[in-house]
Structure formats: structure tokens, C-alpha cells
Amino acid sequence: DARVTQTPRHKVTEMGQEVTMRCQPILGHNTVFWYRQTMMQGLELLAYFRNRAPLDDSGMPKDRFSAEMPDATLATLKIQPSEPRDSAVYFCASGSGITYGYTFGSGTRLTVV
Amino acid sequence: AQTVTQSQPEMSVQEAETVTLSCTYDTSESDYYLFWYKQPPSRQMILVIRQEAYKQQNATENRFSVNFQKAAKSFSLKISDSQLGDAAMYFCAYRRPSYNNNDMRFGAGTRLTVKP
Description:
The structure holds 2 protein chains of 2 kinds. By secondary structure, chain A is mainly β. Chain A has strands at 5-7, 10-13, 19-24, 31-38, 42-50, 53-56, 65-71, 74-79, 88-95, 103-104, 108-112.
């Protein structure tokens, strides 16, 4: 089964530290999404890319978050500096075409203390 | 903006029984896609079923089926012969068909408990 791979699965860090989360989309998928899941806000879209170009990052706090796709096999989400309110599960999802659902990774649970 | 509403934060069902999870959405589009995702305790998001708005026939996947009412903007999920493994959070999602603007919007989720 093809899968979206996210690393790390868990991350605990201190406030102010830089955090980088990585995602390997399914080979051949040209659209990559970053979602954040919290109890209060549910699943929120942070950013997404098509063919490695950013299409929408309006859901992302620009002052501390950045998302990139250095190549077709890697998407990164970086938080610098991290804050306790960033604690959440961050999901990467990938897809192709416009008629199907997306495949999600297992998520990165981030805890900022 | 499109919104997806799941009015049932929690539901429970007896094993082998049938349960229906509700979802409504708001959109001005005539063409779109609707999905149900399952999130078990492992937190993996698993696609359960999808429905194209232009299709009148309700989608079915084994024990999972939907009741799609386009005029009412309603998209409920029916789980038949519930199994213990069906216990999870279920999310309803909406997606536009636009090539350049088709991110998926999710409801708040319904936590389903299956009682043995």
C-alpha cells in the first residue's frame, strides 16, 4: 500500500525552539497539504502545494510558520520560534487529480512546553 | 466560505446494529465532492467513502453507505452491522472541484463508540 510518511511521529520541545516536520508524499501525487488538528479548532488547513508550488498558505501564521517543498518527495513544515499554543497534531496529506480524497500521513504530535 | 457541520459530538451503537452519523454543509457551488473519514485511536485518517455531487445515486462501500440529499445539503453516513473496529472519530469533509482551489474542509467530527 502506498502511504504518506511523516516524521517525527512525536516531538516534545521547549518554547522558543525551532521545530521541523517532514512529509514524504505518495509518489506521483502532485498535491500536498498540511493540516493541524486540535481539540478546540478541529482540522485546520495550514498550507498546500501543487507541483511543489505553494497555492495557499493563508491558514498559517506567517511570522513563525513556513512550509516548503524542496523536491517532489519532501515537504517540510517549520515553526520558529515554537510556542505552547502550537501544540497539536500536524498532518500531511497528498493527492492527485480533483475527484478523489486525499491520503493522510500518521501525523506528528507536537508538544511545546 | 464552505462550512461543514456535524451536530453529533458523540454517538454510540450496539455491536451488529446500525448507526447514522449526520453531516450538513453550506455551499453555493453546484458541483463538489463529499467525503467521510475515519480516525481511530491510532490517529491515522482513513477515507471511508466519497460522493460526487453530480451523482444522484448514493455511494456504498461494503457496510458503509451515505444518504446524500443535495437540496437539503445533507450527507449522512450509515454504518450497518457495526463492529468493534468501527469505534473512531468520523469526519465529514467537503471539497470543491476547482483545480487550483480544492482544499478539503472538515467538520468537527463525531466520536462513535461501539458497545459489545
